[in-house]
Write a structure and sequence with these properties.
Belongs to the class-I aminoacyl-tRNA synthetase family. The protein is an alpha/beta fold. A 4-stranded parallel beta sheet has the order 5-4-9-10, with helices on both faces. Helix 6 packs across helix 19, helix 8 packs across helix 9 and helix 15 crosses helix 16. It is globular, with a radius of gyration of 28 Å. Bound molecules: arginine.
Length: about 575
Amino acid sequence: MRNLIVKYLEDHIEDLSYEEINDVLEIPPKTDMGDYAFPCFALAKSYKKAPHIIAQEIAQDFKAVDFIEKTQPMGPYINFFVSKEKYAQLIIEDYKNTQMYGQSNIGANKSIVIDYSSPNIAKKFHIGHLRTTIIGNALYNIFNMLGYKSVGINHLGDWGTQFGKLIVAYKKWGNKDKVLENGIDELTSIYVKFHDEAEKNPELEDEAREWFVKMELGNEEALELWKWFKEISLNEFERVYKMLNIEFDSYAGESFYIDKAEGVIEEINSKGILESSEGAKVVNLDEYDMPPCLITKKDGSSLYATRDIAAAMYRKKTYDFHKCLYVTGLEQKLHFSQWFKVIEKMGHQWSKDLEHVPYGLVRMEEGKLSSRKGNVILVEDLLNQSTDKTKAIIEEKNPHLDNKENVAKQIGVGAIIFNDLYNSRIKDVVFSWDKVLNFDGETGPYVQYTHTRAASVLSKANYEFNKDDEVDYGLYTEASTFALLKEINKFPQVIIDSANKLEPYLISRYVVDLAQAFNKFYHDNQIIVEDNKVKNARLLLVYMVKDIIKSGLGLIGIEAPEKM
Ligand code: ARG
């Protein structure tokens, strides 16, 4: 419909191109202002008149067509009221003509590298890494839906001085059986011990540094231990990823770039931008008002930024990305700004395609989650708790449901994901169980519940979708029905917007709006009625809603159960 309106306007207005009209054409906030509104500001120059006068004048020029019922000037706007019947036809045909509604090929032949989750090994997977995991996964799905080739990379934090410390700690206080039994818990506890001891005995720090240098030089004993720590960590992380239904295309973490770092350092040097500073090597960033970016330490070992630079070079070569995204907390903003500038100073045009995608903190209602106080919240515990709480709700509301375990997991995990993606990334998430698991609020369970409601109507009616079934488009003009169709029609654009803004919450908001529009329609219209034509017209709508809720939830990484 939008296309039609824009083309129609283009035919009537000589001074503006299709793109110019498309850019300004608005959807009015209220239905009594029509379905589309064209602001006349852009014409003020060529007409040499005030926009509201232009609106008055040219509104008369718009000849009646089958898809426009009424044209009306209003202030500086011209409002268009579309023919509901024609509009219904366009939307439904559009739906029927796509394999998967909302899918497109605007990203064909372009790859988007997304670096997300990326926890540090030998540490518990705590709630701090939940957001990057969820946001990254959503972006991954969203870009794929638009025809891009998403490449999901888990840039594991598996290299750095901390492993020197862990090796020292293990050699001094470690116990193999305990590590085998308690996994990361045990590693964490000896790591904490290291810090306590090092306060009394600073030589431990030197020892740790030496072990890290050994690691960098390929010492067998050091690498053997490190590999083992990594395996243990991955086992635990994978449990969480499985609960979240998340997979990665690559687990190339920081250690993968050690042998590539040297060449990169040489390249930086050859560009004449590497400077010595108290024994370390840095790239000066004074001109950007940033502290220098550290490239090598005094002892020659690499740093977090060095490995990121090497990784970016490798990714450009391997995936020739259109964009490379880094989903991390806001506190790493400076880190990314710094090394993006180093790549730019190295003369790489594509530095502009690197983008940091930051997000805010997760806080419990009572206050900030703190790891220092020891009350870290582990993702696995959180997901399990949510699933258990959901199970209790199911026991109470629908005790005879089949497959209770699995449904509880779909709802419990979905609720956590949804809560995380309900606001713009940068906002802090305030976590409260009452809100997360409220089946009537703007929540994951509410949307999932709406999906099951649609599923149950369809199964009661034994409905089967057939693309070629005839539909009477005149049956969609009732207010809540038409409003629902318009909501359906927004889906493709919402996906595009969420990709452009890197904001999965647009999808979450959308599925809530769609669910609400559906529930209004469902309340106002009986679906399974005598008249077959009417019944089928309504069932088709129910079918479309169910399908779109399912894909919308799928995009943000949430499952849609058939029953709950
Ligand atoms: N491991 C880091 C952390 O836990 C996140 C890594 C993000 N990705 C990157 N390429 N730097 O904070």
